[in-house]
């Protein structure tokens, strides 16, 4: 260490000390020197900022040491490329991972502040839509906790996922201005910037050695600037980094225009450049052919790859040929898949490697994680748009394709139909570039995200590729971090676990198995119920504040929170609620186990039916919650603005987890895992990771219903007629009639017509086919709930057997099987 690197002896303790006293002094320092407010004008949000900065200082020391150690050792680094990182609030997680929660609480108390109030001041960075972005965030937590060197690369959207409000039962979108009060976690790196080229054309030329080469003359250049957020591991020194790229205008362009006298053109250039990272596209699944979205994807991938090659250049005794030994590049879905062509361009055009060498490096470095089988969600770019935007990349993709299809012909001689199917250039509905195929061809490892999903990949969308390269395919079942989704969000459960199985579960979630014997202990069951009850009371407080609806924490809390989508079938849940409502109205004397149905989730702003589903939930809720003959047994709430912060209150309060997608449609799900860890029982189909959840929990501790993938396919193949299911089931017919007839909409027969007509005449996700099975299963849930001890036993066993679903297990598998990234013992 040089003197420059060493913290001065007096600075050391205020910047790095982990005691309550050092933290208190650090907060006071930051209040004065970073925030600059007189003591009398301080509010909790100022203490939030000061504490966040103090915590960041402490991580920064580990960050420097982590980088230095892995440079010294020549360790391999994972680069996780993802268009979304749904990080959630950072302060609580960082205090937990640094082991300074109590110190922070005490430090603030001495300053007259309450930690919980200060934590509540944080505006979460909503830089993701849902599961995919949250998975990336869980994986960063596990990589750091497992001491694996890693960089997350993504986009610093100025506006994240919209804030959802509910007005008159309808979703209203509000812009998410998350940076308005600054972001204490990030460190701007204005000196880390790269040019991103766009548009224009290509030219051929001979280099000094007379070799034919290609030059890309762009139509415009945008600059990407790095913003770094430290990612602290739990209980270790390892502190990795999330590097998010922000767009800004290239100065020289603006000056050019200025010199010619066109000042306004210069300003416009700056404004349009900066729109690149302005806003996150709020679509979860269906793809839209938006040029700006392609630019966003290319922008962050190009910056990230240039950054990686730049790091390689700075390493002594390392050549670019060693890239696969030093970096693993993982594509989180197809959003970053343009990276395959961009790395080829950087290696062939800029580094002047020959094609075969560059291709070998590219394939050895990239891995691809597929996240969806929905055909409409597989990214395809219209060829015209693609070629105008990325002319050089289109040429490179044609070259990749031509060599690839020769390989296919060599392995399957005479099978031109197969060659046509496997082309990276799609021919139906106008030519397109098929990004999932590009990602597959450019990667040495391709994985799905749950056992079922990985099998379906091999037999459907990537079948031809599996037949060509079976050894490249594997499964990596998703996981979630128990630090955030148990320790941080469920302090009651955390204390119970610490006492019964010891605190090792935070990093070895398998140890929850130690709970199993307690499932038969009446005293422990009572403690378990008390813990759940407290969590439900905490959620009920939030629900009444947000919606005005009072919930009784002794009721069964039945929760479905996730993006609103037809395939996730929130409307199937509603059909059961209306069924129960009708039964109660017809027969007010019947005994129904009291249940609160809680929904949350955002609908893509342009997704017409999803928005109607929200309106249906709120309309049914309004009717039921205000009807004294049923509100003794049923309540229905739609909790606005489901995000990570609310998730902390929601998952721990559930008795029942709704995982009711059409079999074959949900790749994995991760919400299902969060519920299970927190002791909810699942009602679910054999879809995604539900299959494995049921295997782990035991079939007797899982409420299974619905068609299997094979049955879904057979029904569709035979020509599915929803009318058959209505005719066969008078209860279903009357439920649909009630909704269509305007019962929940003040007589308005139009508002829900599109939804009901869709079910009656099309029903692409087989809601009606699964209805009878679902309602019957819900009746079994109600019966089971009545036996409190049996329910508690099942609940304890679900938590006890959730160890597999830790993201630590998932990340260990990625590191061992795909990335070859080893733990690094960070020395300070
Ligand atoms: C876990 C999570 C999701 C994903 O939920 P699924 O049920 O797997 O679709 C979406 N949004 C947030 C905020 C989450 O925490």
TrEMBL record:
<keyword id="KW-0321">Glycogen metabolism</keyword>
<dbReference type="InterPro" id="IPR000811">
    <property type="entry name" value="Glyco_trans_35"/>
</dbReference>
<keyword id="KW-0328">Glycosyltransferase</keyword>
<comment type="similarity">
    <text>Belongs to the glycogen phosphorylase family.</text>
</comment>
<keyword id="KW-0119">Carbohydrate metabolism</keyword>
<dbReference type="GO" id="GO:0030170">
    <property type="term" value="F:pyridoxal phosphate binding"/>
</dbReference>
<protein>
    <recommendedName>
        <fullName>Alpha-1,4 glucan phosphorylase</fullName>
        <ecNumber>2.4.1.1</ecNumber>
    </recommendedName>
</protein>
<dbReference type="InterPro" id="IPR011833">
    <property type="entry name" value="Glycg_phsphrylas"/>
</dbReference>
<comment type="function">
    <text>Phosphorylase is an important allosteric enzyme in carbohydrate metabolism. Enzymes from different sources differ in their regulatory mechanisms and in their natural substrates. However, all known phosphorylases share catalytic and structural properties.</text>
</comment>
<feature type="modified residue" description="N6-(pyridoxal phosphate)lysine">
    <location>
        <position position="674"/>
    </location>
</feature>
<dbReference type="GO" id="GO:0005980">
    <property type="term" value="P:glycogen catabolic process"/>
</dbReference>
<keyword id="KW-0663">Pyridoxal phosphate</keyword>
<keyword id="KW-0808">Transferase</keyword>
<dbReference type="Pfam" id="PF00343">
    <property type="entry name" value="Phosphorylase"/>
</dbReference>
<dbReference type="InterPro" id="IPR035090">
    <property type="entry name" value="Pyridoxal_P_attach_site"/>
</dbReference>
<dbReference type="GO" id="GO:0008184">
    <property type="term" value="F:glycogen phosphorylase activity"/>
</dbReference>
<comment type="function">
    <text>Allosteric enzyme that catalyzes the rate-limiting step in glycogen catabolism, the phosphorolytic cleavage of glycogen to produce glucose-1-phosphate, and plays a central role in maintaining cellular and organismal glucose homeostasis.</text>
</comment>
<dbReference type="GO" id="GO:0005737">
    <property type="term" value="C:cytoplasm"/>
</dbReference>
């Amino acid at each position: 260490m040089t003197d420059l690197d060493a913290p001065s002896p007096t600075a050391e303790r205020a910047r790095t000390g982990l005691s309550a006293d050092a933290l208190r002094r650090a907060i006071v320092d930051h209040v004065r020197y970073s925030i600059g407010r007189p003591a009398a004008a301080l509010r909790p949000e100022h203490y939030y900022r000061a504490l966040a900065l103090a915590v960041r200082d402490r991580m920064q020391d580990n960050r420097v040491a982590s980088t230095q150690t892995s440079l010294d050792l020549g360790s391999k680094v994972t680069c996780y490329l993802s268009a979304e990182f749904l990080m959630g609030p950072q302060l609580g997680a960082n205090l937990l991972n640094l082991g300074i929660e109590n110190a922070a609480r005490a430090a603030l108390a001495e300053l007259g502040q309450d930690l919980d109030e200060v934590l509540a001041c944080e505006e979460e960075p909503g830089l993701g839509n849902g599961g995919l972005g949250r998975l990336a965030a869980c994986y960063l937590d596990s990589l750091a906790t497992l001491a694996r060197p890693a960089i997350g690369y993504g986009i610093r959207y100025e506006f994240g996922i919209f804030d959802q409000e509910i007005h008159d039962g309808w979703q209203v979108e509000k812009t998410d201005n998350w940076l308005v009060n600054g972001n204490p976690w990030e460190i701007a790196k204005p000196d880390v910037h790269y040019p991103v080229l766009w548009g224009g054309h290509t030219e051929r030329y001979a280099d000094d050695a007379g070799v034919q080469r290609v030059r890309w003359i762009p139509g415009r250049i945008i600059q990407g600037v790095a913003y770094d957020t430290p990612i602290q591991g739990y209980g270790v020194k390892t502190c990795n980094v999330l590097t998010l790229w922000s767009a800004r205008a290239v100065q020289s362009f603006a000056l050019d225009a200025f010199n010619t006298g066109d000042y306004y053109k210069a300003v416009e250039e700056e404004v349009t450049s900066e729109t690149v990272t302005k806003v996150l596209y709020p679509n979860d699944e269906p793809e839209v052919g938006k040029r700006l979205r392609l630019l966003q994807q290319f922008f962050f991938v190009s910056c990230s790859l240039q950054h990686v090659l730049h790091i390689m250049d700075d390493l002594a005794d390392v050549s670019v040929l060693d890239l696969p030994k030093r970096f693993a590049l993982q594509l989180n879905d197809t959003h970053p898949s343009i990276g395959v062509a961009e790395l080829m361009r950087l290696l062939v055009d800029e580094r002047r490697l020959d094609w075969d060498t560059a291709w070998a490096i590219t394939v050895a470095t990239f891995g691809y994680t597929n996240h969806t089988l929905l055909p409409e969600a597989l990214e395809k770019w219209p060829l015209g748009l693609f070629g105008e935007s990325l002319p050089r990349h289109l040429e490179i993709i044609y070259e990749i394709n031509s060599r690839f299809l020769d390989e296919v012909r060599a392995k399957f001689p005479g099978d031109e139909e197969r060659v046509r199917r496997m082309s990276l250039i799609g021919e139906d509905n106008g030519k397109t570039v098929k990004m999932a195929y590009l990602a597959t061809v450019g990667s040495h490892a391709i994985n799905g995200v749950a056992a079922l999903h990985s099998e379906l990949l091999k037999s459907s969308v990537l079948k031809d590729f599996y037949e060509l390269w079976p050894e490249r395919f594997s499964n990596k079942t998703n996981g979630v971090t128990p630090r955030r989704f148990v320790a941080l969000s469920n302090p009651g459960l955390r204390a119970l676990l610490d006492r019964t199985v010891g605190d090792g579960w935070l990093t070895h979630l398998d140890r929850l198995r130690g709970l199993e014997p307690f499932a038969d202990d009446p005293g422990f069951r009572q403690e378990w119920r008390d813990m759940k009850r407290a969590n439900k009371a905490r959620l009920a407080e939030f629900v009444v504040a947000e919606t005005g609806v009072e919930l009784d924490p002794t009721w069964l809390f039945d929760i479905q929170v996730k993006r609103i989508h037809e395939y996730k079938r929130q409307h199937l849940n509603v059909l059961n609620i209306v069924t129960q409502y009708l039964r109660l109205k017809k027969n007010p004397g019947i005994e129904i186990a009291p249940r609160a149905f809680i929904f949350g989730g955002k609908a893509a702003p342009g997704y017409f039916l999803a928005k109607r589903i929200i309106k249906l939930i709120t309309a049914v809720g309004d009717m039921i919650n205000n009807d004294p003959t049923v509100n003794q047994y049923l309540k229905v709430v739609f909790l606005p603005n489901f995000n990570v912060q609310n998730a902390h209150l929601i998952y721990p309060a559930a008795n029942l987890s709704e995982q009711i997608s059409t079999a074959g449609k949900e790749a994995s799900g991760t919400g299902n895992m969060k519920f299970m860890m927190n002791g909810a029982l699942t009602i679910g189909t054999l879809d995604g990771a539900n299959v494995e959840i049921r295997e782990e929990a035991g079939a007797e501790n899982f409420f299974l219903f619905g068609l299997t993938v094979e049955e879904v396919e057979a029904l569709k193949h035979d020509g599915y007629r929803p009318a058959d299911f209505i005719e066969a089931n008078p209860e279903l017919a009357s439920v649909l009639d009630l909704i269509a007839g305007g019962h929940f909409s003040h007589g308005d027969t139009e508002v829900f017509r599109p939804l009901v007509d869709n079910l009656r005449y099309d029903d692409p996700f087989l809601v009606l086919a699964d209805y009878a099975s679902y309602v019957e299963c819900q009746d079994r849930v109600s019966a089971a709930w009545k036996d409190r001890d049996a329910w508690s036993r099942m609940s304890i066993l679900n938590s006890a057997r959730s160890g597999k679903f830790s993201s630590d297990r998932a990340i260990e598998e990625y590191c061992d099987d795909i990335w070859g990234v080893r733990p690094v013992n960070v020395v300070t």
